[in-house]
């Protein structure tokens, strides 16, 4: 009931946010009067860029991006392209009226060229000077250029600000601190978008192939589990070995031809990631990482060599269950759809919450020495108040969107509520999937005659039972996990906000808390998953199921170690192999080293963008498919442990497990006991 109340509140929150929010406030910048730039059907329809009269008044880029810079802002059709002061324009205007036509683009509609500079400053009709700029986030920012280590704007280091003072470009840079990196990031983002627009078809093809390949592996495990296991192992080793060889070739190439490579000193701190691939150090680090991965896999194979036979038998048993209930392979698609709905709802609600309210105007003074600074004002009657007399040059500019209602006062709290319910829903969807799959596979295990005694539509019945009878238990388990994740988010937020005020002790405590919460989250996830399996088997509440699952696992700790360390390692190899195979094909395709395929993507800005997308997406697809297998094995294992305690193998109490798996698991348990004796 509490879960349903929170969902109803979440729906009401979305309705309130959609009613009070306005997505245009994110899409369009807003001038000093609160009018949108570039909005269709308004006088500013063709004026899509926001222009600041005096950027030197801005203290930081965050102030500008939040539209709180203490200077007049107007909508313009384009940014200035040359240096020009208002006084210079008046002198040139007497010879050629075109100078005024150019300059008036960056003035208010009431401006006139005959006004003197003091009058312009008093009426705030025009900027005192304009300088070369370029649009970023639909706002005009200085066009900084770094030539031979010297920062310039329009090939100048010094320029006049229009009031008779000479300014250095560094002063302008200080007012727009960090903008260059953001500009570079935006440029990269545009190129990344172009790459996605070019390669989206091939990305979908790659993810589809990954899904088909994962399903194929799961089906083949039923027939050739042993051969497929060694295929996983050798395939992963070969793919990683190919990566090591390729990195070594690139490193050797840059080592032999240093003129074609760069150094860390040359590039400094670059946002253009492709520059790092011209560093020999990059390829050397990648080679070392792949070598460590290769050696780790080989060592794990050596230490787990005695467990491989058990893993193969467990895989075969899981394959039989999935073979009798093939609909379980499609269930991850439903989970993905539900997660996508939750994620989309959270993003849209957060966006509308951030844009809720009405325009709020604040008094801003050029030098910040006004007693009315940051007071709320009304631009329609501002000039008739006493503020302009008390603070000459003060302006009434748009500051942000807000309000004085109860809703607007608790916007921050509503953001936290939005995030918390989102985490709760995500964990609930995952819990529902685990309980549903566990119920289906439990019906397979507890069928004496397989597949004759398996009920019809086991997955559908397990889903119906989970929704009808176990919603409260799943909601309670997911609530615990959501609370832990919420604490982690708050801890990270506080760390970022208080970063400048931290000392070594506080950093150490933060790291300890982060480590503790990480361990706690992993432990709760493990207990929750086994509790959901017990819920699916017996239908008890969450606490009793978690207690029974924990006690059952502790009584069979040796078997737990065997199943976890072996089966998860094998499935991990399968995920790595699927993503690696798709990654190699994508690499050959996106780097145009695969001319056999016609119509492939060409002239990409960053081939690693779609490549990493395909690799990561393939791994997630494989993880979704193989997670069904992992749930199957864990469910069968818990049922087996319960089977051993409830039955003795006699005619009255026969075992439900297959004889081959029973023989191996019991043997694995008895060997350590004999060694201990």
UniProtKB/TrEMBL annotation:
<feature type="transmembrane region" description="Helical">
    <location>
        <begin position="569"/>
        <end position="591"/>
    </location>
</feature>
<comment type="function">
    <text>Choline transporter.</text>
</comment>
<keyword id="KW-1003">Cell membrane</keyword>
<protein>
    <recommendedName>
        <fullName>Choline transporter-like protein</fullName>
    </recommendedName>
</protein>
<keyword id="KW-0472">Membrane</keyword>
<feature type="transmembrane region" description="Helical">
    <location>
        <begin position="324"/>
        <end position="348"/>
    </location>
</feature>
<feature type="transmembrane region" description="Helical">
    <location>
        <begin position="228"/>
        <end position="251"/>
    </location>
</feature>
<keyword id="KW-1133">Transmembrane helix</keyword>
<keyword id="KW-0732">Signal</keyword>
<feature type="transmembrane region" description="Helical">
    <location>
        <begin position="283"/>
        <end position="304"/>
    </location>
</feature>
<dbReference type="Pfam" id="PF04515">
    <property type="entry name" value="Choline_transpo"/>
</dbReference>
<feature type="transmembrane region" description="Helical">
    <location>
        <begin position="603"/>
        <end position="622"/>
    </location>
</feature>
<keyword id="KW-0812">Transmembrane</keyword>
<feature type="transmembrane region" description="Helical">
    <location>
        <begin position="467"/>
        <end position="487"/>
    </location>
</feature>
<dbReference type="InterPro" id="IPR007603">
    <property type="entry name" value="Choline_transptr-like"/>
</dbReference>
<comment type="function">
    <text>Choline/H+ antiporter.</text>
</comment>
<dbReference type="GO" id="GO:0015101">
    <property type="term" value="F:organic cation transmembrane transporter activity"/>
</dbReference>
<keyword id="KW-0050">Antiport</keyword>
<keyword id="KW-0325">Glycoprotein</keyword>
<feature type="transmembrane region" description="Helical">
    <location>
        <begin position="200"/>
        <end position="221"/>
    </location>
</feature>
<feature type="signal peptide">
    <location>
        <begin position="1"/>
        <end position="23"/>
    </location>
</feature>
<comment type="similarity">
    <text>Belongs to the CTL (choline transporter-like) family.</text>
</comment>
<dbReference type="GO" id="GO:0005886">
    <property type="term" value="C:plasma membrane"/>
</dbReference>
<feature type="transmembrane region" description="Helical">
    <location>
        <begin position="421"/>
        <end position="446"/>
    </location>
</feature>
<keyword id="KW-0813">Transport</keyword>
<dbReference type="GO" id="GO:0015297">
    <property type="term" value="F:antiporter activity"/>
</dbReference>
């Amino acid at each position: 009931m509490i879960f349903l109340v929170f969902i109803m509140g979440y729906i009401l929150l979305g309705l309130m946010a959609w009613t009070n929010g306005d997505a245009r406030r994110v899409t369009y910048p807003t001038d000093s009067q609160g009018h949108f730039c570039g909005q269709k059907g308004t006088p500013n329809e063709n004026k899509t860029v926001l222009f600041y009269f005096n950027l030197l008044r801005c203290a930081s880029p965050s102030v500008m991006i939040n539209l709180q810079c203490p200077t007049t802002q107007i909508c313009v059709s384009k940014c200035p392209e040359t240096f020009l002061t208002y006084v210079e324009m008046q002198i040139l205007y007497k010879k050629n009226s075109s100078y005024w036509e150019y300059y008036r683009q960056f003035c208010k509609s009431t401006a006139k060229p005959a006004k003197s500079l003091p009058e312009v400053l008093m009426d705030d009709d025009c900027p005192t000077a304009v300088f070369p700029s370029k649009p970023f986030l639909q706002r005009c920012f200085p066009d900084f250029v770094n030539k031979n280590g010297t920062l310039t704007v329009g090939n100048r280091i010094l320029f006049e600000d229009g009031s008779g003072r000479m300014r250095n470009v560094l002063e302008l840079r200080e007012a727009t601190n960090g903008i260059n990196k953001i500009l570079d990031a935006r440029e990269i983002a545009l190129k990344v978008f172009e790459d996605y627009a070019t390669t989206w078809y091939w990305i979908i093809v790659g993810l589809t192939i990954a899904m088909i390949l994962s399903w194929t592996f799961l089906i083949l495990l039923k027939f050739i589990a042993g051969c497929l296991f060694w295929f996983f192992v050798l395939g992963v080793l070969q793919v990683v070995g190919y990566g090591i060889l390729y990195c070594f070739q690139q490193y050797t190439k840059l080592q032999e031809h240093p003129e074609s490579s760069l150094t860390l000193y040359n590039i400094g701190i670059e946002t253009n990631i492709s520059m790092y691939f011209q560093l020999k150090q990059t390829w050397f680090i990648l080679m070392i990482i792949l070598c460590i991965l290769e050696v780790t896999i080989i060592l794990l194979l050596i230490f787990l060599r005695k467990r491989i036979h058990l893993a193969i038998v467990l895989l075969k048993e899981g394959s039989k269950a999935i073979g009798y209930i093939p609909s379980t392979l499609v269930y991850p698609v439903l989970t993905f759809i539900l997660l996508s709905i939750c994620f989309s709802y959270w993003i849209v609600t957060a966006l509308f919450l951030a844009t809720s309210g009405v325009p709020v105007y604040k008094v801003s003074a050029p030098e910040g020495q006004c007693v009315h600074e940051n007071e709320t004002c009304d631009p329609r009657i501002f000039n008739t108040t006493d503020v302009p007399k008390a603070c000459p040059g003060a302006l009434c500019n748009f500051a942000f969107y807000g309000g004085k209602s109860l809703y607007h006062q608790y916007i921050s709290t509503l953001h936290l509520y939005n995030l918390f319910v989102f985490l709760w829903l995500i964990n609930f969807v995952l819990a529902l999937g685990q309980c549903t799959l566990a119920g289906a596979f439990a019906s397979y295990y507890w069928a004496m005659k397989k597949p004759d005694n398996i009920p019809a539509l086991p997955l559908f019945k397990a889903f119906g039972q989970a929704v009808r009878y176990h919603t409260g238990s799943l909601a309670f388990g997911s609530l615990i996990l959501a609370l832990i994740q919420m604490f982690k988010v708050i801890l990270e937020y506080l760390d970022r906000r208080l970063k400048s005020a931290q000392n070594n002790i506080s950093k150490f405590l933060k790291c300890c808390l982060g480590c503790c919460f990480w361990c706690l989250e992993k432990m709760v996830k493990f207990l929750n998953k086994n509790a959901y399996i017990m819920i699916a088997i017996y239908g008890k509440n969450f606490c009793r199921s978690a207690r029974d699952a924990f006690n059952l696992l502790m009584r069979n700790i040796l078997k737990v170690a065997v199943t976890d360390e072996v089966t998860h390692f094998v499935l991990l190899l399968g995920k790595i192999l699927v993503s690696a195979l798709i990654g190699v094909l994508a690499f050959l395709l996106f780097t145009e080293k695969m001319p056999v395929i016609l119509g492939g993507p060409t002239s990409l800005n960053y081939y690693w963008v779609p490549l990493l997308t395909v690799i990561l997406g393939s791994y997630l697809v494989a993880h979704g498919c193989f997670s069904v297998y992992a749930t199957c094995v864990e469910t069968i294992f818990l049922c087996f442990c319960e089977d051993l305690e409830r039955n003795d193998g006699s005619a009255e109490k026969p075992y439900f497990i297959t004889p081959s798996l029973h023989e191996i698991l019991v043997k694995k348990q008895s060997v350590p006991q004999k060694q201990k004796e």
